[in-house]
Amino acid sequence: MVVALTGSRHAGAWQSAFECLTPACASGTCDAMEFDTAIIGAGAAGMMCAAHLDGRTLIVDHAKAPGEKIRISGGGRCNFTNMHCAPDAFICANPHFAKSALARYTQWDFVALVDAHGIKWHEKTLGQLFCDTSAKEIVAMLRDMMAARDVDLRLQSSVEHITSGAHGYAFTLHTPEGVQKVTARHLVIATGGKSIPKMGASGFAYDVARQFGVAVTQTRPALVPFTFADARFAPISGVAVPSKITAGGVTFDEALLFTHRGLSGPAVLQASSYWREGDPIHVDLVPAGLPDALRAQRQEAGRRNFTTELARHLPSRLVEHLAGVFDLSGNLADWSDKRLEALMDDLRNWELYPGGTEGYRTAEVTLGGVDTDALSSKTMASKDHPSLYFIGEAVDVTGWLGGYNFQWAWASAMAAARAING
Q1: Phi, psi of 393 (to 5 degrees)
Q2: What is the pLDDT of residues 305-331, one digit of tens each?
Q3: Is the dihedral of CA 72, 77, 79, 80 positive or negative?
Q4: Closest CA to 212 of 157, 154, 168, 158
Q5: 69 to 293, 306, 398: CA distances (angstroms)
Q6: How far, in Å, CA of 14 to CA of 419, rounded?
Q7: In the Cβ-directed half-sphere of 51, how many Cα atoms lie within 13 Å?
Q8: Given the DSSP bridges, would you call strands 128-131 and 121-123 parallel, antiparallel or unpaired?
Q9: For the segment 70-79, what is each residue's pLDDT rounded down to a tens digit?
Q10: How many whole angstroms separate alpha carbon 154 and alpha carbon 6?
């Protein structure tokens, strides 16, 4: 098992700054440095946890800089939480698991933290909160908080050979400065899921979980665009329209974007978390008041082509595409109320069968992960290994699009930090 980490001090500084507390140290046979807590993964959850820990803390990551997903999120402005965050906006095999952490560290707690650090923010849509200036402000805030607690941050580093014993956990840490043995009383796994592998995402957290007998649920890409093998929407790529999209019995009312490969946009990303391969999705393209508007136009412009009048309410390129799917022939005057209602029913329940999704390459999150039945909902610790914690996206808790997954990162991190601090 290997994961990349970061570093700031040379190995010699480690040896002078920290005293090993293992029994072997007294006999001079141990060269490991001991920390109270070691965190693997310097993303949102890992940094948040480190920023609130007492004692000697080490945090490591493979990247050149911490918080890279924070930096690129929200178009560079970080949708850091959602005003409407509640447990029903999360998917988990145990729908009650997330309630404890989310209740004990709410979206308003994080907003208060952001305010305290002078970061200006705004609500965009549907309760989504963004930085006014840059996502880098969130990263800087967390880095400053870690620095205030003298957290040892190691980047471009890797961890292997994790073992456990009476005095906690031990592993070999590979840094640009060299190889170091590390021991820690508490070990926090915050390496996320498999989404966006080009940023170094992997199944490291799942490997660690399995090593210690912690179950892992089936994982798959979530908040991800749909693809169609025949590229049927390529001619209308770039067209966006308000819609309602239903998958797995759950409906989202947001924008739909047609792409060269298939379907994207907020409504699609949301629905993808509930979709299963081979199942259909249902698309509702009918804006409010459309039937009545077309009836009124029938009285005023009955000789006009129906598609021309429909294009007053939907993008013309989309109407052209729909003409190849549904019968839109004739002048408006030729359309009886019965025929018009039949078309509205079709457009409200357009059934499509995606061939798949774009996968982890573009998925914003990973659905599934470390089985919550094996974890304490209060502390995020393994029930069988009370000093081993899993937080953030690594856990089988997946939020909706719009800041919910960041809120889970903050809340689960705080649950672990409070437990470790005692």
Answers
A1: -65, -20
A2: 999 999 999 999 999 999 999 999 999
A3: positive
A4: 168
A5: 45, 47, 16
A6: 26
A7: 24
A8: antiparallel
A9: 999 999 999 9
A10: 3
